[in-house]
């Protein structure tokens, strides 16, 4: 657990939302509109607009380290941790992924009546929780309609990735999920 003092309260650990992939995609695109994020835009401004901060943090290389990548202290107060050793494109996806945890695993659950006061998401894992955050990040950064339209205009993975501010790998996975490539 982190060195963050939550008082007597122990933060919840992110758990699956139960939402479908399609629902998470729609939620992500809706949130992007609400925070006035445009593809390839300044993601850090959008995070700050809703009470988030981003900190660079040197992580342990061990998947057993159980370090947090997101700490939600309260609604409208959270911190996303990113590595000092990654590219801006990778950071964008990481930030959107952690935003996904905040929205899907904290705000959504509170909206549905769960009594979550604070929450953490850990750095490593390949669980449903992580899949949900990845789905959110992909749709937040690369909304389906805009992605498909731009893809058809340029038909270049490199240009698409640059336009959306993501890695080529992220753009390729999104293109595959939208049926644009095999």
Write the layout of secondary structure elements.
Elements: E1 12-13, H1 21-34, H2 43-49, E2 52-56, E3 68-74, E4 77-82, H3 88-111, E5 119-122, H4 128-141, H5 144-154, H6 157-164, H7 168-177
Parallel strand pairs: 1-5, 2-4
Antiparallel strand pairs: 3-4, 3-5
Helix pairs in contact: 1-4, 3-4, 5-6, 6-7
Verbal overview:
By secondary structure, this protein is of the alpha/beta class. The protein folds into 2 domains: 12-141, Arc Repressor Mutant, subunit A; 143-182. The chain has 7 helices and 5 strands; from the N terminus they run E-H-H-E-E-E-H-E-H-H-H-H. The protein has helices at residues 21-34, 43-49, 88-111, 128-141, 144-154, 157-164, 168-177; strands at residues 12-13, 52-56, 68-74, 77-82, 119-122. It has a 5-stranded mixed beta sheet. Helix 1 packs across helix 4 (128-141), helix 3 packs across helix 4 (128-141) and helix 5 crosses helix 6 (157-164). The longest helix is centred in the middle third of the chain and has 24 residues, at 88-111. It is globular. The N and C termini lie far apart (41 Å). The relative contact order is 0.18. The mean pLDDT is 90.
